[in-house]
From TrEMBL:
One Gene Ontology term of the molecular function aspect: protein-cysteine S-palmitoyltransferase activity
Region (Disordered): 166-194
Comment on protein domains: The DHHC domain is required for palmitoyltransferase activity.
Catalytic reactions of this protein: L-cysteinyl-[protein] + hexadecanoyl-CoA = S-hexadecanoyl-L-cysteinyl-[protein] + CoA
Gene Ontology annotations of biological process type: protein targeting to membrane
Protein name: Palmitoyltransferase
PROSITE patterns: DHHC (PS50216)
InterPro entries xref list: Palmitoyltrfase_DHHC, PFA4/ZDH16/20/ERF2-like
Key word Lyase present: no
Length: 470
């Protein structure tokens, strides 16, 4: 396993290094293109042609004013996203010794990320490719999903209520020595998604203590987890990955709510920069459309009034405006769709078949199931080896339905507010950061669909209303 991962990373180093160099150089290219467009429209057309040659001062002044009306917001948003990507890219803190992180494969390596950028599409506990990233012919992998037990219906007799037999409860332990912890019995051999709980017993994890910030996860009411209840693990950064974070190979770091690596804006587009990226593509689309309309009109007018050929720079500027206008409009439309669906670009690669596994806090865990008892699913107390001052909490391990996005809110406007802000001015001004950065709700990493969580709690046998709104 370690050899396979190391080989894959080495093979990608050249490509990732090239992407980083392109990202560092591209802002200068964008500045040159914007400067060229400004010179053509403002100097060559408005000043030399309209004002000095045609003596149409009003037309030239209005054209210049409208140009900067569209140009300045685009520049402001672009500079804002560059600043954010450079100063606050949204990296997840690494573990203490990331160089030794490859040893932590015993924790259970997650296949949920497109670890090599956007080169391979993966889903939770299923993949379009094998461990080497080679895509198979099967478009959708077969998922081994244990369906939740049926919920007891009101009015049914106790004997008619199906009894779940897939319940495993690891009892809480107090602060104790490592020797005592190793003497703990393993959990049952019941399986979930093909993983045996015995594969994650205390003895195999004795040499791999949980990160210092484990309670950042176990203190929440809902988070994305592995079959053993632990959060997703990044063996590159030697850390737990918060919900929706992914490892970006170009920068070799896990990033909060990673979207994609974009050389055009100089680096990684993620939680802290996504709002400004959206503003860049929207303002860029309007800016390019204005250039296309203005340049096309004056080229046509010049041919009608003077005949012959026009300045080559006018035609080159029109061609570049069409090219970048098509790109900007496409990105603006696709990004709007992602915000509406509350998806990142990484998530969208497999969102129709993805199944999320969630750990939901149960503040009142039931005893082992009996006649007429609540339907039960797998439960585990975490952290397994609490340190002094840490309190283990019980979590039920549940699955969403295939293609179900737990972060898509019912109200379409709320999905936009979560990214762009709660004021209309925040939507258009590239000043305040996205509400995503603040993580206002401490019970989950990001706001989740309350109806979906309530349904999963009911299926897991958790008393509804016992967990705060998520």
């Amino acid at each position: 396993m370690a050899t396979e991962v190391t080989g894959r990373v080495k093979r990608g180093n050249g490509k990732h290094a090239m992407n980083r160099w392109v990202a560092a150089f591209m802002p200068f290219v964008m500045a040159g293109l914007a400067g060229y467009a400004t010179w053509v429209l403002v100097v060559l057309i408005c000043i030399k042609y309209l004002i000095l040659s045609e003596h149409r001062t009003a037309a030239g002044a209005v054209t210049i004013a409208l140009y900067f009306f569209f140009f300045l917001p685009f520049v402001a948003a672009y500079l804002r996203v560059l600043w954010t990507i450079t100063v606050a890219p949204g990296f997840v803190a690494r573990g203490q010794d990331p160089n030794e992180a490859i040893k932590n494969e015993k924790l259970g390596v997650s296949d949920s990320d497109a670890e090599m950028g956007l080169g391979s599409a993966r889903i939770e506990h299923g993949s379009f490719g094998n461990r080497d990233g080679v895509v198979t012919e099967n478009t959708i992998p077969e998922l081994n999903i244990t369906p939740p037990p049926p919920v007891a219906q009101p009015g049914r007799q106790a004997s008619e209520t199906p009894i779940a037999n897939s319940y495993t409860l690891t009892p809480p332990v107090t602060h104790q020595s490592q020797a005592q912890a190793n003497d703990r019995p393993t959990t049952s051999s019941s399986t979930l998604h093909g993983h045996s709980y015995d594969a994650f017993d205390a003895e195999s994890r004795a040499e791999l203590p949980e990160p210092e910030n484990c309670m950042d996860f176990y203190g929440k009411d809902v988070y994305v987890c592995e079959p053993n209840g632990r959060p997703k693990w990044c063996y590159h950064c030697n850390c737990y990955k918060p919900d929706r974070s992914h490892h970006c190979s170009e920068i070799d770091r896990c990033v909060y709510k990673m979207d994609h690596f974009c050389p055009w804006v100089g680096g990684i587009v993620a939680e802290s920069s996504y709002k400004f990226f959206f503003q860049v593509v929207v303002y860029g689309a309007f800016y390019c459309l204005y250039l296309i309309i203005s340049l096309a009109y004056f080229i046509h007018e010049h041919k009608e009034n003077h005949g012959g050929s026009v300045d080559t720079n006018w035609l080159v500027a029109l061609g570049l405006s069409c090219l970048f206008g098509l790109f900007s409009c496409g990105m603006a439309i696709s990004t709007t769709q992602l915000i509406y669906r509350n998806l990142s670009t990484v998530d969208s690669l497999s969102h129709t078949v993805k199944v999320y596994q969630l750990a939901i806090h149960d503040p009142n865990p039931p005893p082992a199931p009996g006649p007429g008892g609540r339907p039960l699913v797998y439960r585990v107390y975490l952290p397994e080896h609490p340190k002094e001052g840490q309190e283990p909490r019980c979590f039920a391990i549940v699955n969403t339905k295939q293609g179900e996005n737990p972060w898509r809110l019912d109200n379409m406007l709320d999905n936009f507010r979560e990214v762009l802000g709660y004021s209309i001015w925040d939507w258009w001004l590239p000043i305040k950061q996205s509400p995503l950065v603040k993580k206002n709700n401490g019970r989950t990493w990001y706001k989740m669909n309350e109806k979906l969580i309530e349904r999963l709690k009911m299926e897991a046998g958790i008393e509804t209303g016992t967990t705060e709104n998520v």
